[in-house]
């Protein structure tokens, strides 16, 4: 397990399933970056078009569904509603100490995003030799997809 610090809190990162099963036979071939989509404004949204580098590695519909779900989760996190208003009022009334004992709506959704990425890696991406990196670790700038090469297969075994 690896640990990273996000927003002052320690978060546990899970090792890539392919690497935990066969670490000696797997190497990084290359990385592909999915850029942010600013066509609808500055809210957190990523391009849903399948990059050329991934065309033969993953189904287009599956990729678009994954990125679409991530975009929807970020829209949910950034949505202003009565809960966000109440959190802001409570924060002001308690000099922000309330956040020491409760998570904000945004933090809860960020956890959902991380869990979703982990599930997608386990079910879809890892079996294809791919790894979606949690874009929170990249400052919400890009979605990084690592393409792994199975050295055992490439050496003719």
Query: Rg from C-alpha positions?
Result: 18 Å
SSE series: EEHEHHHEEH
Largest sheet: 3 strands, antiparallel
Strand order in the sheet with the most strands = 3-5-4
Tell me what the structure shows.
The protein is of the alpha+beta class and 157 residues long. It has one domain (2-154). 39% of the residues lie in helices and 21% in strands. The chain is built from 5 helices and 5 strands, in the order ββαβαααββα. The longest helix is centred in the C-terminal third of the chain and has 21 residues, at 105-125. It starts with a strand and ends with a helix. Residues 1-7, 9-14 and 153-157 have low confidence and may be disordered.
Name the descriptors.
157 residues; alpha+beta; 3-stranded antiparallel β-sheet; 5 helices; 5 strands; disordered C terminus
Give the structure's gist in a few sentences:
This protein has 157 residues and is α+β, with helices and mostly antiparallel strands.
Strand-helix topology:
Layout: E1 2-6, E2 9-13, H1 17-21, E3 26-35, H2 60-78, H3 82-93, H4 105-125, E4 130-133, E5 142-150, H5 151-154
Antiparallel strand pairs: 1-2, 3-5, 4-5
């Amino acid at each position: 397990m690896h640990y990273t610090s996000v927003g002052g809190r320690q978060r546990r990162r899970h090792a890539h399933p392919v690497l935990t099963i066969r670490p000696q036979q797997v190497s990084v071939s290359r990385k592909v970056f999915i850029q942010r989509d600013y066509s609808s404004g500055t809210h957190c949204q990523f391009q849903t078009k399948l990059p050329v580098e991934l065309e033969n590695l993953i189904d287009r519909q599956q990729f678009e569904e994954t990125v679409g779900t991530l975009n929807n989760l970020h829209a949910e996190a950034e949505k202003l509603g009565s809960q966000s208003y109440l959190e802001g009022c409570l924060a002001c009334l308690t000099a922000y100490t309330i956040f020491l004992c409760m998570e904000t709506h945004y933090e809860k959704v960020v956890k959902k995003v991380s869990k979703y990425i982990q599930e997608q890696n386990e079910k879809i991406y890892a079996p294809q030799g791919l790894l979606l990196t949690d874009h929170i670790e990249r400052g919400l700038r890009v979605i990084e997809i690592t393409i792994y090469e199975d050295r055992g297969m490439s050496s003719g075994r």
